[in-house]
Amino acid sequence: MKKIILCVACAAALTACNNGASKKEQALTQERDSLMQVISDKDTELNEIMGTVNEIQEGFRRINEAEGRITVNNGDVESETSKQMIRENMQYIQDAMAQNRDMIAKLKERVRTSGINADKLKKMVDDLSAQLEEQKVKVQELEARLAEKDIVIAQQGEQITALSENVSSLSEENKAKSQTVAEQDKQLNTAWYVFGTKSELKEQKILRKGDVLQSNDFNKDYFTKIDIRYDKEIKLYSKSAQLLTNHPAGSYKLEKDNKGQYVLHITDPGTFWSVSKYLVIQVR
C-alpha cells in the first residue's frame, strides 16, 4: 500500500512540474510573438513612410519634366496651340505641387507621431519641404517669364504699327515694373500656418500663457508658407482642432473627413487672411 501511495505522489509531482514548465514556455512564446509583432509593425510603418517619400520624389521629377516642356523663345510669337500647351503644362505643375504639398504635410504629421529614427525622419521631411520651396520659386520665376513674354509680344505689335523708336526702353521699363508687381503680388498672397499640440506650440514659443504670437521670438521656421490663391484646404490629421488666431467667421469651415479627422476649408481667402497672415491651430 505504501508503495502505491508513493508512486501516486511522484506522478502528481511530475505532472505539476510539467504543467509549470508548460506555462513558462507558453509565456515566453507569447512574449516572443509580441516582440515580433512590434518589429513587424515598425517595418510596415517605415515602409509606408519611405513609400510616401518615393511618391513625393516622383512628383518632383514629373514637375521638372513639365517645366522642361515649357519654352520661352525670345522674339517668337507662339501659336495658339503652343500657348494652350503651355497653359496645360502650367496647370499640371500647379496640381503636382499641390499634391506634393499635401503629401509632405501628411508625412510631417506621420513622423511627428512616429518613434522610428525620429531625428533622421524629421531631417528628411525638412529637406523635402526645402525642395518644395525651391520648386515653388522656380515655378514663380517661370510664371514671371511667361508674363514678360506676353508684354514683349504686345510691344512688338505696337512697333510694327507705329514704328516707335522707343520700344527697347519701354520694354526695360515694363520689365522692371512687371518684376516689381510680381514681387508685390507674391508678398500680398503669402501666408503662414502651423498646427500642433499645446506642448509643441509652447515649445516653439508660439503659445505663451494662453496667448498666441504675443512675442517676436517665436520659431518662424516652424510655420509652413503657402500661397493663399491656391492653398484653400489644410488637412489637420486630428480629431480635435481649434483655431487660436483670429479669422472672421463665415470665411472658413472646420469639417471632418471620412476618418473623423478635421480639415480646414478656407471658403473666402480674402476675408480669412484679412486680419492676420499667420494661422495657428491647436490639435491633439
Task: Explain the overall architecture.
This protein is an alpha+beta fold and 284 residues long. The chain has 2 domains: 38-188, Methane Monooxygenase Hydroxylase, Chain G, domain 1 (Up-down Bundle), CATH 1.20.58; 191-283, no CATH class. Helix content is 62%, strand content 13%. The chain is built from 6 helices and 9 strands. The protein has a 4-stranded mixed beta sheet with strand order 4-1-9-6. Helix 1 runs antiparallel to helix 2 (80-112), helix 1 packs parallel to helix 3 (118-162) and helix 2 (80-112) runs antiparallel to helix 3 (118-162). The longest helix has 67 residues, at 2-68. The radius of gyration is 31 Å and the shape is globular. The termini are far apart.
Outline of this structure?
This protein has 284 residues and is of the alpha+beta class. Helix content is 62%, strand content 13%. The chain folds into two domains: 151 residues, Methane Monooxygenase Hydroxylase, Chain G, domain 1, CATH 1.20.58; 93 residues, no CATH class.
Q: Which parts are unreliable, with pLDDT below 50 for 5 consecutive residues or more?
A: none
Radius of gyration: 31 Å
Count of distinct strands: 9
Q: Provide the CATH top-level class of the largest domain.
A: Mainly Alpha
Question: Which descriptor suits the 3D outline?
Answer: globular
Q: What is the SS-derived class?
A: alpha+beta
